[in-house]
Known about the structure:
The protein is an alpha/beta fold. 44% of the residues lie in helices and 16% in strands. It is built from twelve helices and eleven strands. The protein has helices at 3-28, 54-57, 83-94, 113-127, 144-149, 177-183, 207-232, 236-242, 250-255, 265-276, 296-316, 320-327, and strands spanning 42-44, 64-71, 99-108, 110-112, 133-142, 154-157, 162-164, 247-249, 261-262, 283-287, 334-336. Strands 1, 2, 3, 5, 6, 7, 8, 9 and 10 form a nine-stranded mixed sheet that branches. It has a two-stranded antiparallel ribbon with strand order 4-11. It is elongated, with a radius of gyration of 24 Å. Mean pLDDT is 83; it is low at 31-38.
Amino acid sequence: MKKTVKSGIIVFILLIIGVGIYSVYNILFPKSNNEYSERNMSYRIAENSRNYDINTAKNYRNEFIAALYIEGTIQAENYYYSQKWILSNIESLKNNSKNVALAIFINTPGGAVYQADEVYLALEDYRTSGKPVYVYQGPMAASGGYYISCAANKIYANRNTLTGCIGVIMAESYDLTGLFNKLGIKSTTIYSGKNKNMMNYNEPFTAEQKAIMQSICDECYDQFVTIVSNSRKIKYDTVCKLADGRLYTAKQALEHRLIDGIGSWEDMLCDLAENELEKPGIKVQTYKKPKKRQSIFDIMTGNAKEIEKAKTAAALGVPSDVIDSMNNRSLMPMYLAPQN
């Protein structure tokens, strides 16, 4: 039996197994309404405070703090993150007279400069209504996650949070011309403008092109540092020393004034309710992006693509990242923490 036929049979069997596992999972764990009802979860905060008075609390019984969750890699849309959903909710809450504050939970390694800045500006606009924004940093609030945090009146972090990572990264450039020559592969791109094809795998990356990309990185970096400097009231030069792309622990971030406090999510909400709003016992309304299960088609095509990518990489003798680079030539700058 030919090798290609065997590979095809193996891929088919793996897909069948994947579909079978997915079907059994759906039978054992059917979808529930809870998957889509997170927005309706609500509770009251700081009712144990000595300043809480049940009669006074009646005056703001219809008001609420919106707990908005920002999770996953920041980009237009992915399984965990939706730019449209986040911006729409921030705008809606700004115009909602019953909403009196935003509590943002952030757990992200960062992401695209464009989307991170859009969320930051949306939160700045929200604050023009006079309503405060508090940020709580979860397991990771790095790079673009920290960028967004800078829109807050106050930043809290868990004691195990990794934050900071102030810097910019852009797409890697792979020059595969030598490998292609060795294998007898020819790849030609038709283009006009000498730098139109820069960072493509089939041409060397020139010094001029590197300078072009570096200038874009530097401009985004300056924007990031300026925002940190202004929001945290730290001198620009001091921020530059901190902004070398490294991650900071919560303790280190507090020492460098990158955050305001270390504690729990409840600690932050109590501070917001009792000290900022002076409304202990106020309701907290949860806003989380609904999670949708992957379809069988998504699973099948996703598994097939990963298998084919691994086979291609092995055949060429290159890392799988190189194949990703060949298939995705995004040159967008990213506020993104290093990924393994």
